[in-house]
Design brief:
Length: 183
């Protein structure tokens, strides 16, 4: 399973452009984290890219979300480690996050939304020039992008990252694909 095949499959199952961008952002951050931790970049990238592949098919049903996604990912031929990370990124199933990959995907998921929101309120609506400290400030402002789960982002401690460092890595990763994100 190549990145290209995975992206084709995402596009075959997801119409919403923002949702596709969310998965591309998650992929980019997962790749950067894998590099940071000396883990398998392709594997971690696939987990990020495919994690919400079922989001439109499950139509907000948290009981089926990520179960169907895990099945789809397995059919696509990803490793069981990636399947598990996708499955347990949705807490509704009560499946414990075990591996570093599981834990990374969980905290990366909401970070993409915080960074995108922080970019969109800037005058140029761009990621370029957006600094870690601005994102950190937005993190602390509870009313800003209120749907973004701060608690979940804070779980970066579970992979041994301080919040600042996590935001910095996420920002760097997303700046690297700013054009794809339209930011
Ligand atoms: Fe997600």
């Amino acid at each position: 399973m190549t990145q290209e095949e995975a992206l084709d499959s995402v596009k075959a199952n997801v119409e919403n452009e923002n949702l596709i961008k969310h998965m591309l952002a998650a992929e980019a951050i997962m790749r950067t984290l894998a590099k940071h931790f000396n883990e398998d970049e392709e594997e971690w990238g696939l987990a990020g890219l495919l994690h919400d592949i079922d989001a439109e098919l499950t139509q907000g049903n948290m009981q089926t979300h990520s179960k169907l996604g895990a099945d789809l990912a397995r059919e696509l031929g990803v490793s069981e480690a990636v399947v598990h990370a996708i499955l347990c990124h949705n807490e509704a199933h009560g499946i414990p996050r075990e591996s570093k990959l599981d834990k990374a995907l969980f905290c990366v998921d909401p970070l993409t939304g915080l960074i995108i929101a922080a970019a969109l309120v800037r005058p140029n609506k761009r990621l370029a020039g957006l600094e870690t400290r601005s994102v950190k400030k937005k993190f602390k402002e509870k009313s800003f992008a209120a749907g973004v789960d701060r608690q979940q982002i804070s779980q970066c401690s579970q992979v041994g990252l301080e919040l600042d460092e996590f935001i910095e890595l996420g920002l760097e990763a997303m700046k690297g694909i700013a054009a794809d994100l339209g930011l």
